Amino acid sequence: MSVNKKVPMRKCVGCGEMKNKKEMIRVLKTSEDEFVLDATGKKNGRGAYICPSKECFEKVVKNKGLERSFKHSIPKEVYEKLEKELDAIETE
Predict the structure, then answer these.
(1) 3, 38, 44, 81: which could form a disulfide with 28 (CB 3.0–4.6 Å)?
(2) 10 pLDDT band (50/70/90 cuts)?
(3) CATH architecture of 9-91
(4) Can you give the pTM of this predicted structure?
(5) Domain residue limits, the chain
(6) Are 65 and 48 in contact (CB under 8 A)?
């Protein structure tokens, strides 16, 4: 008898699609109100997920998806860091 493991699903703040947690990029707000990209998905704090695509990133910036998720304004550096991360993923 095999046991099916439940796959954790998360919703993208850009496109709104539900996808596998491991396929997405997690943006984390720490308790010190610092915003970090969490590659492991295990750090403590409030997280929001984005698909690793340029289209979703542009939607997040335009619709202020991260600001809505965190109920907090997001510094421009976080968006720049996220864009660099997406560029690195897309060139692989």
Answers:
(1) 38
(2) very high
(3) 2-Layer Sandwich (3.30)
(4) 0.82
(5) 9-91
(6) yes
